[in-house]
């Protein structure tokens, strides 16, 4: 009897393991752990996404929402990738959002002060540094103006989202820097972030891209695929 009690206690403890640094720790549709490792605080970003941020950041902590959904979808796979993605090559991707009103104080992302020096009248996004091609302060990267079809499939825990298979086309107009941001710190296009994604696209909320991609999925961090495609009317025209 004593042995049984000890095993049960151990199993219960494991179910609530602390999330690692910068990992998702809450939000609607999220089913993972809601506490963070020592030195990090589960910090509210939006209704669909909370992240483990260093406790010294002074950010506000809000109890994250969870879902009871347990449906799993097949994990997207990546094929060969050459340099900046390459037309037709499928990359495993993670999707986030930035722009006016988020808890990290991001400015309106519809601005000509992006790393590329312009924005678009349609859907646009910041690309992880390995895809963008240059780091902060280096100006426009070789991926500026390149378009990708983003397809969302699961949340960060691998649960199928309600709008799995939903796709939009975005144009790269900004950089998601690697420093201090594990989501965008992949080592080359064969490397992955903490969610197993080769690249990350930080969709611009103010362009409408975030709402169009996430839709009614109930999440603010999703996983899926990205494929380089010709730019379409969805990205609109450049504004400098």
TrEMBL record:
GO terms for biological process: carbohydrate metabolic process. Residues 113-236 form the Expansin-like EG45 domain. The keyword Cell wall biogenesis/degradation does not apply. GO terms for molecular function: cellulose binding. It holds the Pfam family EXPB1_D1. Residues 1-17 form the signal peptide. Transmembrane segments: none annotated. Keywords: Signal. Residues 17-53 form the CBM1 domain. One of its GO terms (cellular component) is extracellular region. The keyword Signal applies. This is CBM1 domain-containing protein. It comes from Friedmanniomyces endolithicus. The lineage of its organism: Eukaryota, Fungi, Dikarya, Ascomycota, Pezizomycotina.
């Amino acid at each position: 009897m004593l042995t049984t009690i000890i095993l049960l206690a151990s199993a219960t403890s494991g179910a609530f393991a602390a999330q690692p640094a910068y990992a998702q720790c809450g939000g609607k549709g999220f089913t993972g752990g809601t506490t963070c490792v020592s030195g990090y605080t589960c910090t509210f970003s939006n209704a669909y996404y909370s992240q483990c941020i260093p406790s010294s950041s002074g950010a506000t902590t809000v109890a994250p929402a969870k879902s009871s959904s347990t449906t799993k979808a097949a994990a997207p796979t990546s094929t060969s990738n050459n340099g900046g993605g390459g037309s037709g090559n499928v990359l495993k991707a993670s999707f986030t959002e930035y722009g006016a009103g988020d808890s990290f104080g991001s400015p309106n992302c519809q601005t000509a002060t992006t790393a590329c020096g312009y924005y678009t009248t349609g859907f646009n996004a910041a690309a992880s540094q390995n895809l963008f091609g240059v780091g902060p302060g280096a100006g426009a990267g070789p991926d500026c103006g390149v378009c990708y079809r983003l397809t969302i499939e699961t949340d960060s825990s691998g649960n199928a989202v309600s709008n799995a298979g939903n796709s939009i086309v975005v144009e790269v107009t900004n950089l998601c820097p690697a420093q201090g941001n594990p989501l965008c710190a992949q080592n080359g296009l064969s490397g992955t972030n903490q969610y197993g994604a080769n690249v990350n696209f930080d969709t611009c909320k103010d362009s409408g891209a975030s709402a169009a991609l996430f839709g009614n999925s109930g999440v603010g961090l999703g996983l899926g695929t990205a494929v380089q495609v010709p730019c379409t009317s969805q990205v609109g025209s450049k504004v400098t």
